[in-house]
Prior knowledge:
A hairpin with a 2-residue loop joins strand 3 (28-33) and strand 4 (36-46). The longest helix is centred in the last third of the chain and has 19 residues, at 632-650. Helix 13 (508-520) runs parallel beside helix 14 and helix 14 packs antiparallel against helix 15 (552-565). It contains 17 helices and 27 strands.
Amino acid sequence: MFVQAICNIGALSRRALTYRGEAPLGSLITVEVGKRKATAIVIAHSATSDLEGETIKELNEVLYGGYAWLSSDLIALAAVVADYYLCSLGAVLELMLPVPFAAKEVSGLKRPPKEKTLLLAANLVRQQPLELTEAQSAAVEAIKAAMLGGSKKPYLLYGVTGSGKTEVYLQALALVVARGQQAIYLVPEISLTPQAIAAVMSRFGDKVAVVHSALSAGERARTWQSIAAGKKQIVVGARSAVFAPAKNLGLIIIDEEHETSYRHEGGVNFHARVVAQLRVQRAGGLLLLGSATPSLEVYTSATEGRSELLRLASRPKGSFLPEVKIIDMREELRAGVKGLLSTPLKLAMAERLALGEQALLLFNRRGYAQFSLCQDCGFIHLCPHCDISLRLHAGASVLKCHYCGLHKPVSPLCPKCGSRQMLSRGAGTEKLEQEVRELFPNYGVTRLDRDTTTQKGSHERLLTEFGSLNSQILLGTRMIAKGLDFPNVTVVGVIDADSGIFFPDFRAVEESFHLLMQVAGRSGRGHLPGTVYVQAYNPDHYCLRLASQHDYEGFTRVESKLRRKLSYPPFGGLITLRFRSPDLLRLREDTHRTAELLSQDKNLTILGPVAESPEKVRDVFRYQISIKGPSRKYLQNYLREKREEIETICATRSHWYVIID
Ligand SMILES: [Zn+2]
Ligand SMILES: [Zn+2]
């Protein structure tokens, strides 16, 4: 007997090697590759081999008692994903495993799976299905029919925030469970969606496996095994859970499908939605996407009939969408306002807080100040490893690099000229917290950002603090905009709402729009009416104007027109090649030669090579080339053709990878 096995080491991750011996499909084995020992996964068997008998080595060892970690379906999916993303098969297979290839054998896997659930999900009372609104039950019926009929088209559940999408998901999951099938329920980030997870746990209890980063390798592996054995019928997790080893897949739900966290960068650069689609196309099952603000790709596919649209138009139980007011900060400045909060927002907060209601403030920038500048000589603290200024943190006493994590204490003197005139410029959440505490000393303030949530469980603790009314003001980065349901919030403020709009990425405006719509949806979810204050320096921008009118369709019309004109996705293909090297001169040379090579096809527009921002991170330089063409498929085929030539150009000097939009 011969086995074909693949490991995830450099060029070897692209092709399987043949070994003599016996091991089940999908099991892990150790083999000799050249002179080194490596772990590999068995992806095929054969009785004979074309290779000369004596050149074929014996496999060394079969790990985990020959347990098959991946089914033939998943191995086949890995090949499809590798082909789609032009990446190596070994890298995709590695992503599918609960433990990395290189890990030592995880001990104790023979033990039955230990239950470990999230803090918030513990001690829950079993919850009964809620009564559905007309729109909700129409959606559930349509999903039921699609599942029974084996629909190949994805379904898009498009409903404003608070319209009750979660209950539709729960009832769709109940159908899957009743049919004895399995479902994967993807959420943007486990720690940011405790309420959705609690809802699933309380409805389905021990049928649910929650896959999250706090699991140890052993726990992760045991969870994987109980899913593969069918003991867990519902898998809840972030983007990587799309690879969960459910064998009898009836449904994949992607909640908040527009979220950028479904895009994975590093190793394999995949999008969970794309993988989910590839998976159900092969293995069957329904793909259900949900959002209050669907991505332009998904919404366009629904309007063009490639997916089915289900709408939940209104919020149930007489709650209303909040009123949104755009505050022109240029006028506020002229009127002498100095701080981060405008006068109307301050007044509204004072009034509502006095009534026992709560406020939420979004400021999508961490830290105290963006940089500190010497007024005498112009000195700015820069990170020595990254091409970016250090940010001030912790009440302006620590400097941090947001890219490599460098920390250093700050002195009141300019390191260059010794002047005391150091001025901090640009604010962040810490500065906002300080200002809010000074303005509203009688109320509790909770800050939620990456700096306050580094400890395990701190995220849930902070949310519980706010949810149980122990604090009245929640402020933070975009973390606070997601999936939270606090009925007592009646004032929402967005600071510098237009700061993300001019970011050089074709999705920047769309992402800003989504964020504004999401955060606005946090207000007035109970019976109290809410008001949202959007502070901006470009108050007339269509993104802000249409978000303030809750006009999603209007926004997609404007945005589609612009994208179509420039042939950006979904109206044209765009693939980005990213290049990395510690040697800037080499990197420039390699990227220029690659751009020249790619420009041979006159149907394509080559953008770049250009330095990314920041150009250097952790002492590694970063350049990219974007290619626009008639369609994604066209570009994929073209790059498959050119891959070897690009590899020859870059050789071992510049590492490169592909991002497919
Ligand atoms: Zn100075
Ligand atoms: Zn740095």
